[in-house]
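TASK: fixed-backbone design
INPUT:
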């Protein structure tokens, strides 16, 4: 027997160590040895306990072993205020007011991975101060339809852009010893019916469009946690989905972290045991809804699982694997003694929030140099969004901030400004400003009718040199908010009528759209300037004022295609949204018929090909005409740039050398974008796809030469028959531009 033990211990050096040597507490020991040492000390009850929640946002540690509880919190734009132990209502702490960073669409619009790094680091410091080991974010679901109520939390429509931005966010956050929990894995591309949607998608679209940002977060970013999505894929909920979790995430990508269920996303003990869920949160069991004191014991991975093990239905193989992953998370976070200190609301965090916001704001239109605002101008500010807080609302990303600078206040206190400002409400949107007990102090109640408000704004506009309308959406239900999608592409609250009326009396209208999504702009030709202002967080007003006054030269670029109308969007023109209910109304099948042609990939398709697809899918639409209002990757500056391609190389990788020159009078930044596609587009691949980009800062007159490189791997396609990535050698076409709408292209031979 002794001989056998010795032999076995050669194979597994951890199992037979004397229990007295507390390897798991020794940070000089390799991570895996610490994990095994802790694991073998744990009882069945302790193992079961650490794989499910004990409160809304915490899971227990192992007190006996000195492993602390694991506290987590939303994410992704700031650290959510603490809620009560087992209720969603906020706990009413006085030390949990945070800095709100700009929503992730804005971060993506910076096209600057350094901003993502700073974002992650700053958020990590706030999380540390607040005692959170894991932040529920970032979100990288693809913007497939502008109706998705949660697009503002994500990084746009393009897998390459989202991948480049998510990696530094994850690394920055985790450099502080706080885990990123990347969400919502996967195919959670609309909110309406998010619990019932069964997504039907080709393997190719899954791999080429919907998974790359998750894959990058895991393989390059080294994410320590990932959150399963609510919806289903191949008829299985994604929180315990064999293909997505076991096969792709864990086996193929080698993910060694924790799969966390979205809150209430687990539905079944057997699937949760076998299909890769590691940590269960938020389940709405009967026990919970009845308010039972031991509600958490009813979780799928709690007593039902323990009982099944005791009855011999499972060995502890799966359990041990889950526990290992949770222990790893503890050693990386709660038990990491090297973690730095946390800071809440530090000056550096506000600076980061303002800088990211300033870099992400997109100047969409600026005729006759209406912007920046001229000194001495008489400025009229119009619109509810100039005075409404946007950090409260929108669902789980809602925050309690130490301060949020409103757009009107930001303009009024803009440094060195000599313009005068008047204000008119113009329209009423939603005057309720509270979420989970966080209530905004300043009332925006308004009793006048829409007609009266419009009339007042029009009268004042007649006297103004420039009219800046702050409109858009507002994170209320159906207006960019979790839980529902938008019901319409049009602006709500009679804003179109307002803009039309103002444009009749004043030529210098600037529309600042506050949203995480594109909206219809039927009046676009009557308005000389449009700014995409996102949901910008604590420094919103300052950042907007920076750009509107020219203190900051805008350099943001759209992370999605801005279609003119909903029927121009692939998913909608093919009539695939929101899907088809099955009998019994339990599941709604949503087939992604546009396949890999999402966003600009759809816009780029020839009219002929679109028509063929419309016919094949029996869409009620028959013709297809319009081009996007603003293309993906687009954004203007107060200066001008010249972009010249100096040379390029094919071979194994694509490499293009480009010189960018600032030909205007103020310093600014331009983002040069490299797209690659087949030399002769044949509809088997997108006409072109983003493969590299770089943001370049230039003083007036200055030039810089940069090289953009796309690797062979990034040019591969998913071969459905072989189930692997494959590179197809041949003649390609590379496009260089400052948006996806570019004609500068050249042929390349790739081996
Ligand atoms: C959301 C998640 C969030 C969780 C916890 C869920 O409803 O989908 O994104 O992290 O709640 O608040």
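OUTPUT:
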């Amino acid at each position: 027997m002794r001989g056998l033990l010795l032999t076995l211990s050669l194979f597994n050096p951890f199992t037979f160590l004397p229990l007295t040597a507390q390897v798991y507490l020794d940070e000089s020991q390799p991570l895996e040895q610490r994990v095994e040492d802790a694991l073998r000390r744990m009882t069945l009850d302790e193992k079961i306990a650490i794989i499910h929640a004990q409160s809304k946002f915490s899971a227990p540690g192992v007190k006996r072993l000195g492993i602390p509880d694991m506290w987590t919190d939303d994410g992704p734009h700031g650290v959510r205020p603490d809620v009560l132990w087992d209720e969603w209502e906020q706990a009413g702490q006085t030390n949990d007011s945070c800095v709100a960073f700009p929503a992730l669409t804005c971060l993506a619009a910076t096209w600057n991975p350094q901003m993502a790094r700073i974002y992650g680091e700053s958020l990590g410091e706030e999380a540390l101060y607040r005692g959170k080991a894991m932040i529920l974010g970032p979100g990288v679901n693809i913007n497939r339809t502008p109706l998705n109520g949660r697009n503002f939390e994500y990084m746009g429509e393009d897998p390459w852009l989202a991948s480049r931005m998510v990696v530094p966010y994850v690394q920055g956050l985790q450099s502080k010893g706080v885990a990123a929990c990347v969400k919502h894995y996967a195919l959670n591309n609309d909110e309406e019916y998010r619990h019932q949607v069964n997504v039907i998608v080709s393997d190719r679209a899954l791999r080429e469009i919907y998974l790359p940002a998750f894959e990058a977060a895991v393989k390059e970013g080294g994410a320590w946690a990932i959150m399963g999505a609510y919806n289903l894929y191949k008829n299985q909920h994604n929180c315990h989905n064999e293909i997505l979790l076991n096969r792709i995430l864990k086996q193929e990508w080698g993910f060694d972290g924790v799969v966390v269920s979205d809150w209430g996303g687990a539905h079944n003990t057997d699937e949760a045991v076998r299909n890769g869920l590691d940590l269960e949160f938020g389940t709405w069991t009967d026990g919970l809804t009845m308010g039972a004191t031991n509600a958490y014991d009813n979780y799928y991975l709690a007593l039902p699982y323990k009982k099944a093990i005791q009855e011999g239905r499972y060995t502890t193989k799966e359990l041990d694997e889950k526990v290992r992953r949770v222990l790893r998370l503890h050693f990386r976070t709660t038990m990491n003694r090297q973690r730095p200190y946390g800071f809440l609301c530090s000056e550096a965090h506000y600076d980061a929030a303002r800088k990211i916001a300033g870099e992400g704001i997109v100047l969409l239109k600026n005729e006759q140099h209406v912007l920046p605002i001229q000194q001495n101008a008489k400025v009229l500010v119009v619109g509810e969004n100039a005075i409404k807080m946007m950090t409260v609302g929108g669902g789980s990303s809602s925050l309690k901030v130490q301060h949020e600078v409103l757009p009107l206040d930001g303009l009024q206190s803009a440094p060195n400004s000599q313009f005068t400002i008047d204000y008119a409400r113009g329209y009423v949107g939603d005057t309720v400003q509270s979420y989970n007990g966080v209530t905004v102090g300043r009332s925006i109640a308004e009793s006048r009718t829409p007609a009266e408000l419009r009339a007042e704004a029009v009268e004042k506009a007649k006297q103004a040199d420039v009219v800046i309308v702050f409109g858009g959406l507002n994170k209320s239900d159906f207006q960019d908010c979790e839980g529902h999608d938008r019901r319409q592409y049009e602006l709500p609250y009679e804003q179109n009528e307002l803009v039309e009326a103002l444009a009749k009396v004043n030529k210098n209208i600037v529309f600042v759209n506050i949203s995480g999504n594109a909206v219809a702009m039927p009046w676009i030709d009557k308005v000389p300037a449009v700014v995409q202002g996102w949901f910008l967080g604590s420094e919103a007003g300052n950042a907007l004022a920076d750009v509107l006054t020219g203190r900051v030269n805008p350099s943001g670029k759209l992370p999605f295609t801005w279609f003119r109308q909903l029927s121009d969007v692939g998913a909608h023109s093919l009539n695939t949204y929101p899907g088809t209910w099955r009998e019994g109304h339990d599941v709604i099948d949503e087939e992604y018929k546009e396949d890999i042609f999402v966003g600009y990939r759809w816009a780029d398709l020839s009219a002929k090909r679109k028509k063929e697809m419309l016919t094949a899918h029996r869409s009620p639409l028959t013709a297809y005409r319009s081009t996007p209002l603003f293309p993906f990757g687009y954004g203007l500056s107060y200066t001008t740039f010249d972009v010249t391609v100096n040379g390029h190389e094919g071979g194994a990788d694509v490499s293009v050398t480009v010189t960018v020159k600032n030909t205007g009078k103020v310093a600014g930044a331009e983002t040069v974008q490299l797209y690659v596609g087949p030399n002769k587009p044949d509809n088997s691949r997108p006409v072109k796809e983003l493969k590299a980009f770089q943001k370049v800062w230039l003083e007036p007159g200055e030039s810089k030469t940069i090289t953009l490189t796309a690797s062979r791997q990034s040019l591969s396609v998913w071969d459905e028959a072989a189930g692997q990535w494959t590179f197809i050698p041949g003649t390609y076409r590379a496009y260089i531009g400052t948006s996806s709408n570019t004609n500068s292209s050249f042929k390349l031979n790739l081996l």
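COMMENT: The two ends are 60 Å apart (CA to CA).
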